[in-house]
Structure formats: structure tokens, C-alpha cells
Design brief:
The protein is of the alpha+beta class. It is built from 10 helices and 14 strands. Helix 1 packs antiparallel against helix 2 and helix 6 runs parallel beside helix 7. It is globular and about 50 Å long. The model has no long low-confidence stretch (mean pLDDT about 95). The structure holds 7-O-phosphono-alpha-L-galacto-hept-2-ulopyranose and magnesium ion (2 copies). This is Fructose-1,6-bisphosphatase.
Length: about 325
């Protein structure tokens, strides 16, 4: 896996470079499409027998790297791939910050097969490893994390997403005195930030995308943090209506086919088995995790966070690309 670090990092760079010129174009699908085709052609150039296990959807929803798609040159190690070509297509389309091109590699069979639905996620760094339990109320988790970090609840910093489905959680945490950072979008970046040294957040609690959850878990695992997650159906995330029930039924069916359970708490080792994972995220628009792409005198500059679980490496790589 280690030898794939460089090829992987080049893939997220290529995707970010392909999408970036369209920042602010207003068209999410166009941006996704550009990143997807850049990723696919970069992937097919490297010596792996790769399979997309975490993608953005099923075969009929182009453009995307679909779940089950075989990629790579067809020789070399068997690799399972978790990908979000652009984590935050809306952010790129609207010219907002924090969008990333992300991909993770793991040995065959080591990632949870989660479909594209909502997931409840709780992430902490290594100092609070072992004290979280998503089956318990948020307030209990907040207390346990604060205790593990040796700080009062008033100094605990929780990242989350500013979405209607998270307003009760935000109110509950605020009530306890916890300082809440409700980000418009992007819980992959928030998960990674919660695990880094000198982190801006002590924990991350959200209900966001399941694919993003498994991708984040790769980084959390490699950084020695902790995470738990639970698949949530559409009604639970967005409210109980007739239309939402149809979506929820399809999601439950898909979960059964993929061998995963809705409303079951998955531990980090079940999300990602083993430490032999690689994670790469290149900034498209600038954020707290990495810089976005910047125009320089004779080209552009990219910044990528490359994390290796096997050798416990964490590199921030600046590249210059001429045009
Ligand atoms: C989630 C989250 C992502 O989009 O998928 C969210 O995991 C989608 O939320 O990080 P809505 O369905 O409420 O729009 C992100 O925030 C950005 O891709
Ligand atoms: Mg995306
Ligand atoms: Mg995403």
C-alpha cells in the first residue's frame, strides 16, 4: 500500500486541477463530471486491481465513479477505493470555501460497504479514544470526551454541520456550554481537523453522507483517532413524509443487498479494518484543512494532505503546476 501513496496523491491533485477552473460556474454536475473523468483516467494509469467500494452512487447515475466499478491498469495489488471526487460540489459551484478532492485506498475487503445515504458520525482524536458511544445520548458523549481531554464542557469545541437535522444537537450542546462550530458543509475536512494535532475542534458530531463517513474513517484510523457511525434512513434525516418513506424503503433494501444495517452503531474497526490505509485530499477552494488552488506567476499551486496509516505519516504537499 505504501508504494501507492504517490500515485494516490497525484490522483486527487488531478481531480482538483480539473474542477477548479469552473469554480463559481453554478453547475454542480459539471464540476463533478470534470473531477470524475480526471480521477478515472489517472486511476486507470496506475498498477492496481482497484474496485470502487465507496462512490457516489449506482451505475446509472452518471457522472460518477460508481460502486463496484473496476479501475486501475489491471495488474498489481488488489485495492478497495473510497472516493468523493469533489467533497463539496455545491461549494465549488458557488465559489465557497472548504471543497476537497478526496480518495482513500485500503486492502481488499477492509472497508464498510455503505450506500449513498445519511450517516450519523462522531469523531474524536487519540486523546479521547475509547470513550465514545453513539448508542448513548450526545450529552453523555460530550461529558466523557471533556473528561478524557481534561477540560470543562465550557471549553469543549464541537464541529458540526449547520443543517436543520442537526439543530436539536446544536441546541443540546450549546445548552451544556459546549462551543459549537456549525459549518455550512464539509464533514470530511471537519473529521480530519478533529484528529490533527493543534486541532481547531475536539470532536465532530454530524449527520452527513455515509460515503463521506467511510472516507473520513480512513483518515481517522490512520491518524489514531476514534470514530463511531450509524446509517440513518431518509425519514430520520429529513422528516417523515410519504415521499421520504419511499426513499427510505429503497435505502433499506440497498443496505440489505450490501450487507449493512441501518441504525446499528459501527465502531471504527468495522468502518475500516486494519491500519494499512492511505488517504489523500487536495484543496479545490481554500479551507481550514488545506489551501485551495491558487494562481501563481506561471501556473497554479495545489496543496494536498496525504496520510498513511501503515507508517503513520502525515504530509502536506505543495505542488506547482505550469500551464
Ligand atoms: C453531507 C456531508 C458533506 O454535504 O453529505 C452534506 O457529509 C449533504 O448535506 O460533507 P445535505 O444533503 O443536507 O445537502 C457535505 O456537507 C458536502 O459534500
Ligand atoms: Mg462529491
Ligand atoms: Mg461529498
Amino acid at each position: 500500500m505504501k508504494s501507492l501513496a504517490w500515485p494516490l496523491f497525484r490522483i486527487t491533485e488531478q481531480a482538483a486541477l480539473a474542477a477548479w477552473p469552473q469554480t463559481g460556474c453554478g453547475d454542480k454536475n459539471k464540476i463533478d463530471g470534470l473531477a470524475v473523468s480526471a480521477m478515472r483516467s489517472a486511476l486507470n494509469d496506475i498498477a492496481i486491481r482497484g474496485r470502487i467500494v465507496i462512490g457516489e452512487g449506482e451505475i446509472d447515475h452518471a457522472p460518477m465513479l460508481w460502486i463496484g466499478e473496476e479501475v486501475g491498469s489491471g495488474s498489481g495489488p488488489e485495492v478497495d477505493i473510497a472516493v468523493d471526487p469533489i467533497e463539496g460540489t455545491r461549494m465549488v459551484a458557488m465559489g465557497q470555501s472548504n471543497a476537497l478532492a478526496v480518495m482513500a485506498f485500503a486492502p481488499r475487503g477492509s472497508l464498510l460497504h455503505a450506500p449513498d445515504m445519511y450517516m450519523k458520525k462522531l469523531v474524536v482524536n487519540r486523546q479521547a479514544k475509547g470513550v465514545i458511544n453513539l448508542a448513548h445520548p450526545l450529552a453523555d458523549n460530550l461529558r466523557h470526551v471533556a473528561k478524557a481531554l481534561g477540560k470543562p464542557l465550557e471549553r469543549l469545541r464541537m464541529a458540526t454541520l449547520d443543517k436543520p437535522r442537526l439543530q436539536p444537537a446544536i441546541a443540546e450542546a450549546t445548552q451544556l456550554g459546549v462551543k459549537v462550530f456549525a459549518l455550512p458543509d464539509g464533514d470530511v475536512a471537519a473529521s480530519v481537523l478533529a484528529c490533527l494535532q493543534d486541532n481547531p475542534y475536539d470532536l465532530m458530531y454530524t449527520i452527513g453522507g455515509a460515503p463521506e463517513g467511510v472516507i473520513s474513517a480512513c483518515a481517522v484510523k490512520a491518524l489514531g483517532g476514534d470514530m463511531q457511525a450509524e446509517l440513518i434512513d431518509f425519514c430520520e434525516a429529513k422528516g417523515d413524509t410519504a415521499e421520504h418513506r419511499l426513499i427510505a424503503a429503497r435505502e433499506r433494501q440497498r443496505c440489505a443487498e450490501m450487507g449493512v444495517e441501518v441504525n446499528r452503531v459501527y465502531a471504527l474497526d468495522e468502518l475500516v479494518a486494519g491500519n494499512n490505509v492511505l488517504f489523500s485530499a487536495t484543496g479545490v477552494t481554500g479551507g481550514d484543512l488545506v489551501n485551495g488552488i491558487q494562481q501563481v506567476a506561471k501556473g497554479v499551486r495545489t496543496q494536498t494532505l496525504l496520510i498513511g496509516g501503515a507508517d503513520r505519516t502525515c504530509n502536506i504537499i505543495d505542488s506547482l503546476h505550469s500551464w
